[in-house]
Amino acid sequence: MNSPPPHARTLDSMEKTEIYRRLRHVVEQARRDATARRQRATAAEQAGTTVLSDIAAPLFRSVVSALKTEGYSFRVSTPPGAVQLSSETSTDDVIELVLDTTRDPPALMGRIRRVWGSRVIATECVVKEEPGLDTVSEEEVLGFLLRELTPFVER
What we know:
The chain is α+β, with helices and mostly antiparallel strands.
């Protein structure tokens, strides 16, 4: 009968205390990580809410007003945690700035959905991640909005 080489360890040969020690380390690290993630999400929620209400919503409204003078019909809505610019002629044409605290790190996300022929094209991009949501500028939001608005106003 052949025995395994002496350097080959099997699960049966591991000390139960070693298994327990390593498991406890993983569990404790997971708890610390979860606590830190929740703290980042809470900070992002506060900063992101301010950005959406104080920067994005007024800026989106200004862009819609300018679009109307150019003959484009769009409207702005502000569902919880987001600001949306949508076409008045197609409910599938939407540019949305949304706070996503489910990802790590939390981020201000751009979500774009538009109809092209019979297809609906949906994309998503990070506008700004935490840390740094409290430093989002009007220029960053406007840059995102104008870049994503281009396909909607092509004729």
